Amino acid sequence: NNLDTLYRQVIMDHYKNPRNKGALADESLTIDMNNPTCGDRIQIHLQVNNGIVEDAKFEGEGCSISLSSASMMTQAIKGKPVEEALKMSKIFSNMMLGEETDQEDIDLGDIEALQGVSKFPARIKCATLAWKAMEKGVDENSR
Ligand code: FES
Ligand code: FES
């Protein structure tokens, strides 16, 4: 249907024109994570100061779902408080479980385009890879 087509276009746009692709300065956090089911590997770079994600970038190789998800994730969390980034990650993981997402006051923006992935269990790890890496980085940073 039309919504699926729109969502597919959003995913392909992030894949072909990735937002925030590249590295950050040396003092930023880098989280390297692979998808064990396929061996694809991505790096998420985060600059977190005073509880704010000041910058977020990604690098790596993967399928269209994993790379578009990384692009959307970095776009979504940039400039946001860590708490909000984690909340988005929770909402995203609920979405991947096919659960109703209670979006509350959070604008998911382009991320919504990935909700169809929940119908393809083999691809869920692709979609959540960047989010898991971000969560790990934030967790390490707060220790
Ligand atoms: Fe082919 Fe991930 S793109 S399995
Ligand atoms: Fe490797 Fe999707 S097939 S991350």
UniProtKB/TrEMBL annotation:
Protein family (similarity comment): Belongs to the NifU family.
Designated name of the protein: SUF system NifU family Fe-S cluster assembly protein
Start and end residues of each NIF system FeS cluster assembly NifU N-terminal domain: 7-126
Taxonomic source organism: Aquibacillus halophilus
MF terms (GO), sorted A to Z: iron ion binding; iron-sulfur cluster binding
Pfam families assigned: NifU_N
Gene Ontology biological process terms from the UniProt entry: iron-sulfur cluster assembly
